[in-house]
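Hi everyone,

Forwarding the result from last night's run.
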Amino acid sequence: MQSRLRMGMIGGGVGSFIGPIHRLAAEMDREIEMVAGVFSSDSLRSRNAGEMYRIDPLRAYPSLDEMLASEGKRDDGIQFVSIVTPNHNHLPSSLAALSAGLPVICDKPLTATLAEAHELAETVAATGLPFAVAHTYSGYAMVREARARVAVGALGNVRKVVVEYPQGWLAGEACGKQADWRVDPARAGLGGCIGDIGVHAFQLAEFVTGLEVAELLADLGTVVPGRLLDDDCSVFLRFSNGARGVLLASQIEVGELNGLRIRVYGEKGGLVWKQEVPNILTFHTLDGRTEMIHAGGSQLGPDAMARTRTPPGHPEGYLEAFANLYRDFAAILRGQPAPLLPGIATGLRGMAFIAAAVAASRDRPGWVSLTV
């Protein structure tokens, strides 16, 4: 039996939403164990987080430099890092880890700016180390099934893509740790809503269809008075095959929770997937039939089936999708293929999308090319 891969976390301190999610997901399949971390820039808070995670107190480090130096001297030192900090720390943390010879899995978006994304991509290429971006929704089994069906031509030529990501939690004043940094350009980077959830919708559209966005027409709004970053986004898309699309992302739609959903229509059929009902993929055919495809069902393809842990009717969701990304990352670290895991190229396209949408909305030039 192979030993578990040893993970160090950067960020994810007390009060973090995404840190515990990464830890649970990483350890779900017993492929990985989190053994160390620098959980906060404050040494006391980092130590407190180490207690929360129940790791060796000596391995809850006060700084990234100390973690990399100390772990590098251990026979049982960390073998990769997971970066779960606000966006402005993604580049320096990634560069430090890569320089220490450690593979990286990083939360999205890749960096705070497109220039930083290019710098990181060049470093990843130079080191040759594995690098993944945690686009959670591409880990869902039914999203993998949707991609597989589009790829084999079940819809025919794709004509129309509609992807929506509505939330309502920032419709009023931004309060609390999770909100504060997301509306702060110094920590969030170039985009607000477009960088926080719009990039998820963008990646999902390209992932499911297997197509790249070639052009876009963007209208990004700052709706809440006094806010410095966008909180409501509408983007028209044109894909590489000529298909048209619409991307809607908003954090000011009162009553919406985490309503990511995608619809793809081709010449022979259409499909619908909703994140809040993740275990059903709806497939429409040209002759008027509608098929409800259930997670765990015998009609699934091999990739979706391999990403499903329970029989039909036993719901799987966000944690399992996240765990699928970590399972793929573990496979890569063990020298096995995981071609659907979002990597540096995906992260770079995401940052190019954010930059293009922000600039196009500001300058109003009409349709612009999406170039990386």
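DSSP finds twelve helices and 14 strands in the chain.

Cheers,
N.
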